[in-house]
Amino acid sequence: MASGNEKYYVPEQSPWPIVGAVALFGVAVGGGLTVMKSPAGQFILYAGIGLLLFMLAGWFRHVIRESQGGLYSQQMDRSFRQGMAWFIFSEVMFFAAFFGALFYARMFAVPWLGGASNNAMTHELLWPSFEAVWPLLNTPSGDTTQAMGWQGLPLINTIILLISSVTLHFAHAAMEQDQRNKVKVFLGLTILLGFAFLALQVEEYVYAYQDLGLTLESGIYGNTFFMLTGFHGMHVTLGAIILAVVWLRVMKGHFSAHHHFAFQAGAWYWHFVDVVWLCLFVFVYVL
């Protein structure tokens, strides 16, 4: 190798990509068959999810061993950073689509159904008794629901996520100073706050279904509410699992003040999830 050149680790052939492809195919087919109420649907879906979890555990274990073995260079570190940045960007676009659906419904579809923009005839033909207000608490079938207020559990969950961002920042700062005990404490607190958020969201869903009559079948309001909050909850679950794995690695002595990108990637993802919740809290609960 010439002087000044940087080595780049080329991994050996791996079975994990094809295993992941098979797992995702099973999840897609199983999900579709489950919606169609096929007897084999749930079996294929759960088998696909199980295979996906097996793939993730095996692949990440392989990557961790390579990292701990000193096989990675600064170029590999830059590759990981670019990959994580693009992944978060794709997640931004994912939530942008759902927020876009919410804004379209509120700013265009609801006023049009109410007779705005010379759509009086559409209003009279499709839904004569329709009132252009948000949230829509009535459906064409005559069912009614109640709106979820921003106070109570949603506000508590907002505070929990904001505090979790602060504790994660302290953990990251401690990692950069190689203060491992502080890392363990603050990162552990962040994980506990994340799971507390999820527990309260489950309680909120129970309250919505049992007391408010707010379900996935409650028209466009129920659809957008559960799609946005549900997918966000899924991302909080993923983020909490990532941070839990990082915490276990910290307990095993992994990472150093200058080499801890897995920790940093988890922090990026968690802060992204927090920002999404703030937008969600404002546009879904408050406005």
UniProtKB/TrEMBL annotation:
Question: One of this protein's GO BP terms?
Answer: aerobic electron transport chain
Q: Which Gene3D superfamilies match?
A: 1.10.287.70, Cytochrome c oxidase, subunit III, four-helix bundle
Domain (Heme-copper oxidase subunit III family profile) ranges = 4-287
- Please provide one cellular component term from the Gene Ontology annotations of this protein: plasma membrane
State the superkingdom. Answer: Bacteria
Q: List the membrane topology term(s).
A: Multi-pass membrane protein
- Return the PROSITE patterns for the record: COX3
The places in or outside the cell where this protein is found are: Cell membrane; Membrane
Q: Is Transmembrane helix one of the keywords? A: yes
Q: Which InterPro entries match?
A: Cyt_c/ubiquinol_Oxase_su3, Cyt_c_oxase_su3_dom, Cyt_c_oxidase-like_su3, Cyt_c_oxidase_su3-like_sf, Cyt_c_oxidase_su3_a-hlx
Does Transmembrane helix appear among the keywords?
Answer: yes
SUPFAM superfamilies in the record, alphabetically?
A: Cytochrome c oxidase subunit III-like
Keywords linked to the UniProt accession: Membrane, Translocase, Transmembrane, Transmembrane helix
| Top EC class, one word | translocase
Q: Which GO terms describe its molecular function?
A: cytochrome-c oxidase activity
Membrane-spanning residues where? Answer: 16-36, 43-64, 84-105, 150-171, 183-200, 220-248, 268-286
Task: Give the EC number(s) listed in the UniProt record.
Answer: 7.1.1.9
Give the UniProt family note: Belongs to the cytochrome c oxidase subunit 3 family.
Q: What is this protein called?
A: cytochrome-c oxidase
